[in-house]
Amino acid sequence: MSNMNIINTDSDEATTRSYVVHLIAAFGAELVGTFLICAASYIVSSLSSALYGTSMLLILLSTAVAYAAMTLLFGRISGGQFNPAITIAAALTGKTSIIEGICDIIAQIIGAIASGALVTMIIPRSSKATAMIWFSGTVNGFDKASISSTQISHVGISFNIWFAFAVEVLATLVIVAMAMRTMNEPDITPVAHAAGMGFAYAVGVAMTYPITASALNPARATGIAIFLHKENMAADPLKQVWLFWVASILAAAVVSIVIIVFQMLQPHASQDNIQNANDDFQSSETSDVLEAFPQAGMLRTAHLVNAPGENEDGTGIGKGADVNGNSSIDQDKGSTI
Question: What is the pTM of this model?
Answer without folding.
Answer: 0.76
